[in-house]
Amino acid sequence: MPAKNNHSELLPSPWVYHSLFWLAYYIFAALISFSIHHIVDPRFNWQLLTLLPPDMALVYLHLFLLRRFLLNKRNIAGYILLILAGMSLIAFVNISVHGFYARHGSPYYASSGTYTTSNFSAQILNCIYLLGLATAAKFTKDWMLQKQQLQEIAKTQVATELAFLRSQIQPHFFFNTLNNLYSLTLQRSDRAPDVVLKLSSVMSYMLYESGAPLVPLEKEISNLENYMALEHLRFGGRLSLSFEKKGAMESVCIPPLLLMVFVENSFKHGMSQIAGQGCIHLLLKVDPGELTFHIDNPVGNGQPQEKAGIGLKNAIRRLDLLYGSTYRLDLREAEHTFYVTLKIPLP
Q1: What CATH architecture is 152-345?
Q2: Which stretch of DSSP H or E encloses residue 293?
Q3: Strand boundaries in 55-137, DSSP class E
Q4: Considering all CA atoms of the chain, what is the largest pairwise distance in Å, rounded to the nearest integer?
């Protein structure tokens, strides 16, 4: 079942935020009463708790009006009139409740339970403070939600693009290899069965291994060697091929098919473009925290290799998505030789 990208999965339930907000508001009011007025009577805390419903009604009226009138319809005048009416009503209710407690023996509300201008002003100021606090909490929560949604969208886009780039490697490679196999079958070459066997190994790796985010480096090396064996069969004696491996590779993992593009490119835009002898040299070195891959190949007289085909462009885009600014890739051509040096971080 596909994952649902909704509010409840990105952040906790809204009820959690609302409960935490009102709990913090109540505790803050109780602490203020204790620190300023030194009130320790448990009855006062229960009475303070009964004053929360009017405050809650005002806050939710504010949030409803804020969304309905101010943000959606830009009706600022309507919002101001309704919220002023709401604050006046809540001020009247709170003063009435204070008066009720004062008449029933509570000394803490004796001065705030009468309908005076100063009491109304104090209640209105308290309402403004509460609404400002609630608005700040709402916008903070909305910002957190939007940030997580953008992160989820970015992750989805990166995963989709990586899958697309990786899928482009496979048909690109198979197209070239099948062309090679076709040429050998036309020549009725005895090497054709070897090509089929090697191609089967490469296909198995691409079908069953390359879907994972990371694969053991040793498997990636084995796949590269199978691929190079295919190309060596095609070019025969005019190709000199060497592959050096240095460092401990047993526990190293890398993204699948990450190096294949550079190797394939060295044959397609290197050996295929020259008529005589050619040498391709590979070096794979594992150091603590870093993997270095180097390959150099001859360059023909045609288009510069770094500008040819989609292979290198896809490889660079994939490296950008996987490693950001933490990798180094050097592509250069000198003296009829194309050099590629890639350094990627290892966990």
Answers
A1: 2-Layer Sandwich (3.30)
A2: strand 290-298
A3: none
A4: 110
Integer CA distances (angstroms), 37 to 24, 109, 116, in order: 19, 12, 21
175: tokens are 């197209």
Q: What is the pTM for the complete model shown?
A: 0.53
Taking only the tens place, the pLDDT of each residue in 202-242 is 878 877 777 778 889 999 999 899 888 887 877 777 888 89
Determine the residue type at 5.
N
CA distance 296 to 221: 17
Task: Tell me the one-letter amino acid at 104.
Answer: H
The residue ranges of every structural domain in the chain are 10-115, 152-345
**Cα–Cα distance list, 143 to 128, 137, 140, 154, 314 (Å):** 22, 10, 5, 16, 35
Say if residue 128's pLDDT is above 50.
yes
Look at the alpha carbons of 233, 235, 241, 243 in this order and tell me if their dihedral is positive or negative. negative
For 3-20, write each residue's pLDDT tens digit: 444 444 445 567 777 788
